[in-house]
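New to this. Please check both lines:
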Amino acid sequence: MFESPGGGLAWLVGTDPKELLQRGGSLFLASGAAHLLNYLYHVLLSRALGPADYGAFVALLSLFLLLAIPMNTLQTTIALEASTRHPEHLGPFILGLLRVMRRRWLQAGLLGWVVLALASPWIARVLQLPTALPVIVMGGYLVIATLLPAIRGIFQGTHAFGLLGATFLIETSSKLLVGLTLVAFGLGVSGATGGIILGAAVALVYGLWALPRPDPPREGAAPITMSPLLPSAVPIGLTLLFFAVMTSADVIAVKVLFPPREAGYYAAASTAGRIVLFATWPVWAVLFPAMGRTGSASRMTRRGLWLGIGLTVLIAAPILAFYVLAPHLATRILFGHQFLPGASLFWPLGLAMLAYQVAFLGMSHELAVGRQRFLRLAGLSTVVLVGLLILIPRTLTGVALTTLAVGAVTAALMSWIGLASKVR
């Protein structure tokens, strides 16, 4: 499963480019199937819950994705770390990782769940939820999120893309089955969030089972700790935080500032826009650990960034064309006629997600080559977006166009930083 880094084009795969394409292809197929199931989940949920409850569900999901940023940082950090390790060192690294997961991260996740349960009445009031139960249920996601991203980070960093894709496919299929069953039994938003928790739990069990069983370290060997991860974890965590806020702040702002039914229309359009994010995610998943193998910027990493941007635009183009040419048809297919008032929001939010994905590729390139100067601009863009969402828009269209405008500027800045900087 694990290969050692080589020379030449080894930054791109570790052995040869054809192997990367084969493995990346398996990830594209598995993640594509997973995203189809995920959107089937949202399509059926939106019809079962209606605009108001569906808006509450999407806002709650966006909030918890923000809260889970510290845990999701683990996947990117571990992927970068694993991609640079020699095969002889991967066994001790995995053993040390599992030890820290069991002794520290799991306890932190449980503590976070308790804190959220105590704060659930206030969160429910801010998000205009009728009950705090969905918040308490969703808190269980923090427990699983302390473990599952670490497993996925090992798979991603070692180019085990088939196993990585399988975890997403298992998670979404389990979520679809369990979540819709709970909603059918009348549990509403709580059932929808429960499906997310149980689906992630099934994926975690599979990931632990699929991990290689490394030999224990030799007697007298130095213990493996996670302290080497900390220097890279901080900039990675900030990058993921900025990206999550940029792609989720509008949904939360609309849920807080607009009536529930309008928030539901916007949530559906935002979910449609996120198809662009999820469809292009494998491009980043394949290229990021590959670029990190060099440790510095080069013509090869710049080509990788150009390739990533090109593939991302190519994949997103037909989705955006559908939203521009037939927004009402897209709305009926994805969410049903009751969400038609939000049809005009599909294309600006889809284009905004494309812009933020391009920006994320630029930021990831800088992380992979060991540069952090982009963080100030990314942080400034995030603050500007949040401020504008609070101060300016008074219509759903205004929120969408504000999100798009900031995204376009951010994408231009991050791409320029990655493509125009000096290389060796």
In short: The radius of gyration is 21 Å. Confidence is low (pLDDT under 50) at residues 1-16, 220-224.
